[in-house]
Structure to design on (199 residues):
């Protein structure tokens, strides 16, 4: 599985979809999965609080990845920076995620100020009512160093999605044993939904 980490506005969904298309794999988005299960994220947080959202997100991740080894997965923006006690499996899970080959941290830029400016610009351009510049700037400033410190390869995303996808493929090819990295699968991806025991 290829896992894409990073703050909101880093390009995880757009680049993940491009990467999945390039590899002929299924693309999964953890936020969309939570919305499928529980409705709008903002409504869920308003009703149950952010900690409940984070806990449900971790549980959703555990359910979703079962049987989806060939998928490309975009994790939620705060997934790697939740409080350690949010879920009994969280600490072990995140430690494993960042050490997996195929995990990448996406950031618009590795320069803090350029990253902050681009994240705020992108987030304010989204059709989400609760966005405001001060809040978005505060969130990315608080999380930037934490994402930069994760022990996984970093990829800058202020380029077209297909170019970022090609960069990730090149990085995977360099890490893979000779001949092990396939960029196109010979058969169509499985239509079986991921999560739960195999059919």
């Amino acid at each position: 599985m290829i896992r894409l980490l990073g703050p909101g506005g880093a390009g995880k969904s757009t680049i993940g979809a491009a990467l999945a298309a390039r590899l002929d794999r299924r693309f999964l988005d953890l936020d969309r999965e939570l919305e499928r299960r529980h409705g709008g994220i903002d409504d869920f947080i308003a009703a149950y609080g952010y900690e409940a959202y984070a806990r449900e997100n971790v549980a959703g991740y555990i359910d979703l990845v079962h049987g989806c080894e060939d998928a490309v997965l975009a994790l939620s923006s705060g997934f790697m920076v939740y409080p350690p006690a949010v879920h009994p499996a969280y600490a072990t899970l995140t430690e494993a995620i960042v050490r997996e080959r195929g995990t990448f941290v996406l950031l618009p830029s590795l320069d803090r100020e350029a990253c902050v400016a681009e994240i705020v610009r992108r987030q304010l351009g989204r059709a989400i009512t609760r966005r405001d510049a001060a809040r978005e700037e505060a969130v990315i400033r608080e999380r930037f160093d934490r994402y930069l410190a994760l022990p996984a390869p970093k990829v800058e995303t202020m380029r077209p999605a297909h170019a970022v996808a090609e960069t990730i493929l090149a990085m995977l090819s360099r890490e893979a044993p000779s001949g092990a990295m396939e960029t196109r699968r010979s058969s169509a991806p499985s239509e079986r939904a991921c999560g739960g025991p195999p059919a």
